[in-house]
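Researcher: Here's the sequence for the chain we discussed earlier.
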Amino acid sequence: MILVVDDDEGLLMLMAEALREEHYTVLTASSGAKAFAQLAGRRPDLMLLDLKLKDVGGQAMLKQLRRDELLVPFVVVTGQGDEKVAVEVMKEGALDYVMKDTALLDLLPSVVKRALTAVQRERALAATEAERQRLAREILQISEREQHRIGEDLHDGLGQQLTAIEMMCTSLKADAKDQPELERDLEMVGKLLREAIRHVRLLARGLVPVKGEPDALQTSLMELAERARSVGRFQCRFDCPAAVLVHDHAAAGHLFRIAQEAVNNAMKHSRAQAITIGLSRSRGAVELTIADDGRGLPKAKSNGMGLHVMKHRAGVIGAELAIEARPGKGVTITCRWRDSS
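Model: Thanks. This is the structure I predict for it:
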């Protein structure tokens, strides 16, 4: 469906008829106000817009349509001497322009066909990109579910079995008090088992970093800061002025992984002394920030795998990721995710 907007009613009728002869469905509007009414009711595939309407200028109309989210793909129709204006409008998104001269009615069908082909190509690309993002989300969700399952199996399966064996060793030690050598061996076995249990718990925590509760993200980020501090070379602070509840478990998991990657990068490469993990909510969006006071982002790392992974995770949940690097003054990574819950 094509909407033709022109205040020259005779020319408007001729343009509409030329397009109908090519089997297009055509709507017409003889003023900007009528065009707004048409666009508010039905969304055409393409609009032919006269740049000099009596009640509103073409450029002003385009700005208003953008503000009202009514703008559709469009081609401008302009008079002789207005080619410069037409070129300016092309920069604002017009697919093409056609001059009001003796060749207008002959050229119009081919211009419209070319514009509609471009629209279809853009829609196909958008659909392909949407499908790619859907598949990427699905793959990551499957991966996260499998990691969650393995983490639970480690904690509830192997971890519990090792704990049971360690308890048996403790019991056997009581029975081996008169056999010093056996008692020492059992003490060593118990120590090794306790170390193995600790490693299993760390593995399980790494595979299931964020549990299902709405406050799990801020709890996990607090633990991340504590673990970074435990290394002993950094001050790592978690800043969360008010509770931030995230009901979307998948989004919470991706946000945590972004923070984890950013903190690990800062610890490995930034030579920072202090790292701050911030979590807040503003205007319906969850904002996660990781800032360090290190040397900035080395050129070798500015396009590294870690940053690619963070950007990919942000894209999967529809978040915006910004990286601000200042040489000698550190790096700040900000991820804004709009919570639809």
